[in-house]
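Hi R.,

Here's the chain you asked about this morning:
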Amino acid sequence: GEVKARIYNIVGNQLKEINNLPKTRGYNEYVWNGQDSSGREVGNDVYYLVLMAKDSEGKWVKARTKMLRLR
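And the predicted structure, written out as tokens:
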């Protein structure tokens, strides 16, 4: 199924959507470059990651976590 991620700032504005993430079982890794969808670097702050995958019935399953960006 489809796998994607969205990154939001602390007030809930979507900064970036990352599509076509790896779909293999087990451990997968993606390194965010710290840029928003316009290519601008974001500042040091707390961000929210929402990882989404379609299940066998085509419904989106979501997982959320916080990220801290320090540079």
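The beta strands are 3-8, 14-18, 45-54, 60-69.

Let me know if you need anything else.
M.
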